[in-house]
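Reviewers of the previous submission asked for a worked example of the structure-prediction workflow described in the proposal, so we include one complete record here. The input consisted solely of the amino acid sequence. No template or homolog information was supplied to the procedure at any stage.
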Amino acid sequence: MPEAAKSAVTSWAAADRSPPSAAAHRSNENAAPRVSGRLTLSLRSGIRAVDPLRFLGLIIFVLAWYALSFLFQPIILPPPQAVLFRLLADFWDAPNLSYYGVAEPNLYANLVYTAENVAIAVLCGAAIGVVSGLVSARVSIFRAIVDPIMTTAGTVPILVAAPFLLIWFGVGRASAVGLVIFYVTVIMYLFAQKAASNLNPIYEEFARTLGASPRRIIIDLLLPATVPEILGGLRIALAGAWGLEAISELLGSQEGMGKVLEVLAGATDPEGIMATLLLLGFVAISVDAIVAWTVARVAGWNAGLHSGGSRT
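From that input alone, the workflow returned the following structure tokens.
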């Protein structure tokens, strides 16, 4: 065997005998800076995405509130620091709520109850609305049947359905969740239908020329292309769902933030009312920020899919 071949075989054998832990160690050393760099990049992107004007508006609002509190009695407009202290005091334990028939005498449990109802209603309403909206955009018979119902439901105030839900489901979680499901379904139906109608028909035509089946067109083209607009509709539906759920709880529920607002209003407790509204608003805004971040991450690739044609 030539000397060059022997040398090559020897070097390969030596490489095979090298301990795998050393290679793994080097790989881990190289991976650590990459992970750290990604985290740093994500953090910087998040900081750049924060709008400083939002914080400026919040500061102006708090300062205006604080200034106006000197012009009115606390029974009319309590100062912000008193509302914050009341929020912290009632978050885990609010014995005064038990005197008015609230099942859970604290803000935390009632907030969880309301959040659970909103989550259930949004998930169910979004599933029904998205599926029916996408089907109506492609099946003309289904659209002719469902469109008048959804259009009427979208123009009539949603609280009109509340008495019927109370009669059918009674006082409790079912009627409150049903009302929000009704609202979310209408919103998501309209957004899903519009998203599918706005999709440029050339993409589906091109997929058919390549032999794609209707099932593959729906899974690989229609659903991904409509996700950004559907998520935008979900953000709008979620924003309204919090307030609608609180209103529905005013109709006779024994738990939830709406029930807390009802008993505090009956007790003429503006400090407690504002503390409850502050907590509910903070949670709603935080959830909206998370959804907005998700939409921005998901919808970035969808810039050109809806240009140049639509289905109406």
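The first helix runs from residue 3 to 17. We consider this example representative of the routine output the project will generate in years two and three.
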